[in-house]
Amino acid sequence: MYLCVISVCLQVPVEGFIGDSVVLPCSSAEHDLKLQDINVLWRNKDSETIYDLIKGKASVEQQDPRYKNRAETFPEEYERGNFSLKLQNLTHTDEGEFNCFITHTDELRTIQLIVKEEFSLEMTYKVKVEKVGWHFYFL
């Protein structure tokens, strides 16, 4: 008989804009991890591989082609338990749920990515200048 207990945290919402980058947070409750013990699996809502860390090293052999050269982590943070993922050049198809599974500690983190259109608001001002004596008035 086997018993598997997985630590699950609440879903974390993260917002980003099309074309921009976003960091999806994932950290372990356990710190001072040894690199050779670190296996972290990042998956999207369709269970496609986004990024894997196997024994503390990036493994992109199974990475979905849509994430090639768009997903990266922060190796200097691994031993402190930080396995956050930076996703670059966001598209509408990136929107949805992402899972970070830390196998050594059986921790699952779920992140909800919301991708928005970036917009700019342009305002036009009309300025009326009148000369009265030596003073200028701007309306």
Automatic annotation (TrEMBL):
A Gene Ontology BP annotation from the UniProt entry: negative regulation of T cell proliferation
Ig-like domain ranges (all copies): 19-112
GO cellular component, one term: external side of plasma membrane
Keyword annotations: Cell membrane, Disulfide bond, Glycoprotein, Immunoglobulin domain, Membrane, Receptor, Signal, Transmembrane, Transmembrane helix
Pfam families named in the record: ig (PF00047)
SUPFAM superfamilies, alphabetized: Immunoglobulin
Principal localisation: membrane
InterPro entries the UniProt entry points to: Ig-like_dom, Ig-like_dom_sf, Ig-like_fold, Ig_sub, Immunoglobulin_dom, T-cell_Activation_Regulation
Signal peptide: none
Membrane topology: Single-pass type I membrane protein
Coiled coil: none
Subcellular location: Cell membrane
Protein name: Ig-like domain-containing protein
